[in-house]
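User: I'm preparing a small set of examples for a lab meeting where we compare how different chains pack in three dimensions. I only have the primary sequence for this one, and I'd like the structure in token form so I can line it up with the others. Please keep the answer compact; I'll paste it straight into my notes.
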Amino acid sequence: MSHPLATALRFTLITWLLCGLGYPLVEVAINQVLFPAQANGSLIRVQGRVIGSRLIEQAFTGPRWFHGRPSAVHMNPTQSGASNLGPLSRRLARHLARRRARLVAQHPSLAGRRLPADMITSSGSGLDPDISPANAYLQARWVARARDVPLARLRALVGRHIQGPWLGLFGQARVNVLALNLALSRVGHTRRARMGMDRPERGHRGRRSVRGHERTSG
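Assistant: Understood. Below is the structure token output for the 218-residue chain.
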């Protein structure tokens, strides 16, 4: 074996060990020590059971829950993507019109009202876990009505879950839907406990998590 070839092979092996093995292991170790929650998917647990991630949108149905943005991939995390329809697309205009019509049919008070853009438009990933504060405050009206909870209480709940731009500069104010609905489920439980009604339903054990029986599969 010639000397230049041996040198090249040794250099290749050392580079592979450092960059392909050493660096990733060091990076994983640092992240697990300094940022364990983020490094493991920003999972949310209730009583030790994983109910979702702060980073991936989940589907909620019914007026008792806050809803996330529409999704071009039906909130399937294995098919992240957008509709790829541009602002001049007639197909996009039809999609937006249908989404608005569905909302107005469910909530007639929205007729003729200017809606937050994220209420009828999908995100670039189709999995955006956040909505705008304007969207959340608007939804609080019918959530409060469906749950028989004072609107002021739900508006305060939304206010506590507003996250500002990162470092005050990057991004926009937002509300994580899963975290908000988790807090909302506690509000309902607290209210029932005060009324002496906080008893589990027979035959439905284990279904009173934030996902609830009103939640569809993501």
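A couple of notes for your slides: The first strand starts at residue 43 and ends at 46. The chain is about 45% helix and 5% strand.

User: Perfect, thanks.
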